[in-house]
Amino acid sequence: MPDITTxxxxxxxxxxxxxxxxxxxxxxxxxxxxxxxxxxRSVEGLQRAVKEIETKGGxxxxxxxxxxxxxxxxxxxxxxxxxxxRIDVLINNAGVDCFAEFAELSTEQILQxxxxxxxxxxxxxxxVIPHMLRQxxxxxxxxxxxxxxxxxxxxxxxxxxKAGMIAFTQGLRGEFHRQxxxxxxxxxxxxxxxxxxxxxxxxxGRGTPAVMGGTDAAHVAAAVESCIRKGAPEVIVNWxxxxxxxxxxxxxxxxxxxxxxTATRKFLKRISTGSRAGKVDER
Length: 283
Ligand SMILES: NC(=O)c1ccc[n+]([C@@H]2O[C@H](COP(=O)([O-])OP(=O)(O)OC[C@H]3O[C@@H](n4cnc5c(N)ncnc54)[C@H](OP(=O)(O)O)[C@@H]3O)[C@@H](O)[C@H]2O)c1
Known about the structure:
Rossmann fold, alpha/beta, two-stranded parallel ribbon
């Protein structure tokens, strides 16, 4: 939807736009009236995304960016503002998974996960917010995970970054809700056509157990669009039964934890073994 006062396109900055869920979000939002600015490290992946959007009549530019590099984030925001004059929507979607036995993680793996998923989100948001304040409006959508609702076994660091994104969202909402800035967090469960999930299936040779539920990238993209329109605080995109388990966990922590572990631990252990063998998160 273009800016109703000026007719100018709505400028949407999205990280992690080169693959998986990010591509699904681009496909959904890459319509006439939206100017997309796509960020990720892979130049080829971004170019493919731009082409796909343009083929459908949308408009997008690629700005190759490593979100774990603070200088690159500054360049991304200044390029966006100097080309289009504003940033209406920021979608912090870039992320890496980190499923492995905790004691076997290297310092580098831990830092890469935190700097990409959490620090990158915080620093980019810090750079974008002044422009939204100047405009008097803006929407921010952070891509967390159900892993942030209850830290997964063999995925403690990943879960910590996603829980951090949820808390970050809550804090920003409280601070900026009177200044026209909407902030939402989306928490997908395992997502088909998201690269992380697809690599897990490849490495383990099977999908998630039915009890863990799941979703697909198109549903996650729809949830992102809905957050931009309605500014919901948090959207869990995962068909039951994980959602009721989170409610039970809030009310009865020990019982809830036992249920979640029974439903997930064996599968997560299998993922961590695949990861140790170097099969997960290899592109
Ligand atoms: N798939 C799932 O089951 C699932 C479930 C819940 C939440 N999520 C979350 O959804 C988001 C997308 O996941 P996905 O499954 O679509 O993963 P994916 O297919 O691996 O895509 C990850 C995206 O993030 C980008 N990225 C990674 N590191 C980056 C960095 N340092 N700087 C800039 N961009 C970077 C990747 O691009 P480059 O490699 O080109 O940089 C890619 O575009 C992540 O935040 C993930 O945690 C996924």
